[in-house]
Design brief:
Blueprint (H helix, E strand, L loop, with lengths): L3 E10 L2 E11 L4 E5 L6 H8 L7 E6 L2 E5 L8 H8 L2 E4 L11 H12 L4 H14 L15 H13 L5 E5 L7 H16 L4 E4 L3 H7 L2 E6 L2 E6 L1 H6 L4 H11 L3
Parallel strand pairs: 3-8, 3-9, 6-7, 7-8
Antiparallel strand pairs: 1-2, 1-4, 4-5, 9-10
Helix pairs in contact: 3-4, 3-5, 4-5, 5-6
């Protein structure tokens, strides 16, 4: 059974239709890369999955349970939204760390607020996560004392702290220079080696080709093409996919 199923998802902002019937599934331990030009709906899809936006139509299921059904036309309570969000961990483009807190407190804040364990156990788990992303020596540093790559690695540890079913990345390296990009991509690759289920919106084509199990190319609010990295990158069928990849690989 798929850990994530998205069926016929639609989202409009006013009269602008941004998602136009998105359908895909993700198995446990799989890495799905979502590629495409800006404005294609990639970030909106992530925001709908994480309940930062509410889709207009469609269904989202996690581990066989429907957590969103737009066809029921009923308002989701704040409590339900908070509960649904726990299925997902989201890493943003711009890190979004709390500047007034240390790296350690950024990671422990949500687990402590939700009282998922004792403060002592939460602290110990957070230290292990920071060690896992290579920051055991930065637990007491504030975001302003960290490089962009280090901040993003703290953000990854924070997303992992609530043990989500699916880890989502929204262009996790877009704000970083090439050297720092490598730091973050190595952490994501290590997560794959530990069987994490991930959904990654990325402009790093070579990374997507090497790490993803499945690739989706989105254009104009639809899934234009979906398949294995070999199918999408080496043998694209859509003219839009071919044009996008030709432009993307010109920069390498």
């Amino acid at each position: 059974m798929a850990i994530l199923e998205v069926k016929n998802l639609y989202k409009c902002f006013g009269k602008t239709e941004v998602l136009k019937g998105i359908n895909f599934s993700l198995e446990k331990g799989e890495v799905l890369a979502i590629i495409g030009s800006s404005g294609g709906g990639k970030t909106t899809l992530l925001r709908c999955l994480n309940f930062l936006e509410t889709a207009d139509k469609g269904k989202i299921s996690v581990d066989g349970k429907v957590i969103f059904d737009g066809d029921e036309h009923k308002k989701i309570s704040d409590e339900e939204i908070r509960k649904n969000r726990l299925h997902f961990g989201l890493v943003f483009q711009q890190f979004n760390l709390f500047p007034q807190y240390t790296a350690l407190k950024n990671v422990t804040l949500a687990p402590n607020l939700l009282k998922v364990d004792t403060p002592e156990n939460i602290d110990a788990s957070a230290r292990k996560l920071l060690d896992r992303v290579g920051l055991s020596d930065k637990v007491d540093n504030y975001p302003c004392e960290l490089s962009g790559g280090q901040q993003q690695r703290v953000a990854i540890a924070r997303a992992l702290a609530l043990n989500p079913d699916i880890l989502c990345f929204d262009e996790p390296t877009s704000a970083l220079d090439p050297e720092l990009t490598g730091e973050v991509l190595r952490v994501i690759k290590d997560l794959k080696n530990h069987n994490s289920t991930m959904l990654i919106v990325t402009h790093e084509m070579e990374f997507a080709k090497k790490v993803a199990d499945k690739v989706i190319f989105m254009a104009d609010g639809i899934i234009e093409e979906m398949g294995t990295p070999s199918e999408v990158f080496d043998n694209p069928k859509s003219d839009k996919t071919k044009a996008f990849l030709n432009k993307s690989f010109e920069v390498f």
